[in-house]
Amino acid sequence: MPPDFQVALVSMPFGSVDRPALGISLLKQGLTERGITCDVHYLLSELLDLTGLDTYRWLTDGVPYTSFAGDWCFTLPLYGRQPDLDWDYVQSILLETWRLSRQDVARIIAIREQTPAYIEQCLTTVDWNRYQLVGFTSTFTQNLASLALARALASNYPHLQIVFGGANWEDQMGKALFQQFSFVDFVCQGEADHSFPMLVDSLAQGSTLDHIPGLLYRDNTAAVVSTLPAEPVKDMDTVSIPDFSDYFAMLDKGTRRAQVTPALLLETSRGCWWGASSHCTFCGLNGNGMVFRSKSADRVLSELASLESTWQVHDISVVDNILDMQYFRTLLPRLAEQRSPRRLFFEVKANLSRQQVSLLRDSGIRNIQPGIESLSTHVLSLMRKGTDALRNVQLLKWCRELDVSVDWNILYGFPGERLEDYSSILETFRKIGHLQPPSGHGQIRLDRFSPYHSTPALFGILNVRPMAVFAYLYPFDDALLKQMVGYFDFDYDDKHTPIDASELLAAIDLWKRDYERPELRVEDDRSVLTITDTRQSCDPRRYQLAGFDRLIYVLCDRVSSVTSIQRRLQGLFPASHFSVEDIQHLLDWLEKHELVLCEGKHYLALGIYENFPDSLANAAEQRHRPRSRTTIGTVPVVNMTMKDTRTLVQRADVLETST
Question: Torsions phi, psi of 604, nearest 5?
């Protein structure tokens, strides 16, 4: 390796200011381990100086993502002024589609007017003569800013070679972009942990490139060459620990560190074990393959220790698609033993147990994204989510009780939805106002690599075409555009006409605005269970359950059928008899008072416990006590039959009080 061969990796707007870029931080460390000099430049810093932090964050997080306003801002330095096209973008996309205020539109245009000067500043901020290769990471709305600077670098520093990578350049998208933008010399596709260092070695030594997997390049005739696909990393423990030093150096400029509370990024796995067996119909992630691989618990613990000791940051977002379920046995108990102040974020499956949610909390995982995209079992089946509405609510309930924050959304517009699906969701909303509301809502998007995109006719999807906004970002012919972009518009066939979701969306917005969060609180003294309900009224309603009625409510803490309740009761009290009819009678009363949620033959108690019994043995501990009567409304629990509890149901109106 020639000692003067140096590499620059660049993160352009509109990458996050609140966390480092993981991919290029991994690549930098990989090159450093091979003795290759590499710098990461967070050139979003220069735009922050022009726009201010609040405006930058607003454009990144406050403007609808698929308006691609951040990308549109950089059409000016990339293509020059296109008055008719630019005016049409403002009218059609910003004003008509997304209904932004004219004040917000003016704010976006003001940012756009600064982008040519920003690109010029980027040319002088860095000494580009030091480098031989410049790499751009491109995800989300970074593509046009990256292309604009790449073109300027190629024009002003002809010795530089330019390489692109990232989600925007995967598969056909990368090939189409590479064909159109001739100033890009190479594209790395797939996992580049091994292929990128191989590219750097070959360029430094002047050797051939055809042996490098996952590479696009041009031969001596300018023809595009595509090598064999890059192989996924098999042993995740061999992946480098990312070097975030350049990110923190960027934050240390001026007063920025005081304005930003950074989070670290951690990768514990790649792929999706659920998607490998049942690909969610709308999901376009993992375009290069679903195969799931994870790091060992030892490696995750050592990486966490290294990152936290180096950067003194304890807010950590795990970037995995899904939590490895083996971690409940191998990793999370060890994290819980550390009693660290760290706060971890993970994406998880929704069908977790109470004990698993408790372990998440104890291990420092206080924020989760469980893929709750609907509260309709039918719609969830259309998604192939592998869960149902009751289990989604069950997770929301346990997370509220155990102080785990849930990031979830309601998606709508799935082919095959029915009016009754929306009605059932609205009815569920009315009963769970005491739980954490959705973070937001959105109509489904047709993503490249999703089953909806690969087999649209199977789902009643017609006329798949590039999302309209892309015509303003990439002013090329339709055939090229269709290969170049990742999101698509479509039509429904006659059998799958979408349902009007306006009432559903209004209910979500109202729920989110309800700052006076109601309660459905459960206090259990192991003798009498008292439920306080403020969901539908400022005046609380109180209910008391005792004896086997109390125990049945405890058993319904998890989704249960009448027969499963009967079986569990019989196991706890083998000398007693429990009839399905008597259990059903109580459950009907509980459902009438909206203390349980029912779907089909299954029930879920909705109350939030202040102190949930840590085992069924504790919940039924009265069976070891002498036969006695306790406070009003309770009955003996030793050697009882369900007939003895009928008086409780008959006296329900007496037990219900208002204050």
Answer: -140, 120
In-domain check, residue 411: yes
**Which pLDDT belongs to residue 291?**
96
Reference 292, options 328, 268, 317, 264; nearest CA is 268
Measured in degrees and rounded to the nearest 5, phi and psi for residue 3 equal: -65, -20
* CA-based nearest residue to 415, from 462, 458, 460, 464: 460
Q: Residue 223 in contact with residue 217, Cβ under 8 Å?
A: no
Instruction: Provide the b/e sequence for 3-18 (b: ≥16 CB within 10 Å).
Output: eebbbbbbbbbbbbbe
Strand partners, 446: 488
Looking at 189, 220, 236, the residue that finishes a domain is: 236
List the beta bridge partners of residue 124: none
Q: Which tokens in the block code for residue 214?
A: 């996952």
pLDDT the model gives residue 406: 98
Question: Would you say residue 486 lies in a domain?
Answer: no
Q: Is the pLDDT of residue 616 over 70?
A: no
CA distance 36 to 516: 57
pLDDT of residue 536: 87
Same domain, yes or no: 230 and 297: no
> Which of 171-185, 491-505, 553-567, 596-610 shows the lowest per-residue confidence on average (mean pLDDT)?
491-505
Percent of the chain with pLDDT over 90: 88
Averaged pLDDT, 614-628: 46
The pLDDT confidence band at residue 615, using thresholds 50, 70 and 90, is low
Q: Which runs of E-coded beta strand occur in 131-287?
A: 133-137, 161-165, 186-188, 215-218, 224-226, 264-266, 269-270
- Indicate if 80 and 118 belong to the same structural domain: yes
Instruction: Please state the rounded mean pLDDT for residues 360-367.
Output: 98
Q: Specify the residue for token string 């208002």.
A: 658
Stretch 204-217: mean pLDDT, rounded?
97
Most distant CA atoms of the chain, gap in Å: 95
Q: Give the pLDDT of residue 619.
A: 56
Does residue 15 sit in helix, strand or coil?
coil
**CA–CA gap between residue 93 and residue 96 (Å, rounded):** 6
Question: Rounded CA gap, 159 and 153, in Å?
Answer: 9
Question: Cα(first)–Cα(last) distance of the chain, in Å?
Answer: 80
- What whole-number distance in Å separates Cα of residue 405 and Cα of residue 402? 9
CA dihedral of residues 550, 552, 555, 558 (deg, nearest 10): -110
CA angle, residues 183, 189, 190, in degrees to nearest 5: 165
Asked whether the predicted pLDDT for residue 503 surpasses 50, the reply is yes
Q: What is the pLDDT of residue 657?
A: 34
User: What length is written for the chain?
Assistant: 659
pLDDT in tens, 631-642: 223 333 323 334
| Stretch 72-99: mean pLDDT | 98
Distance CA 301, CA 333 (A): 11
Using a cut of 0.85, tell me whether the model's pTM lies above it: yes
Measured distance CA(328)–CA(349) in Å, rounded? 13
Verify that 55 and 153 share a domain, yes or no: yes
Tokens of 366: 């206080």
Q: What angle do helix axes 562-572 and 547-555 make, rounded to 10 degrees?
A: 120
Domain that includes residue 71, residue range = 6-236
Rg for the chain, CA atoms, rounded: 29
Distance CA(190)–CA(233), nearest Å, equals 10
Q: Which residue bears the tokens 């149902």?
A: 388
Residue 114, classed as helix, strand or coil, is helix
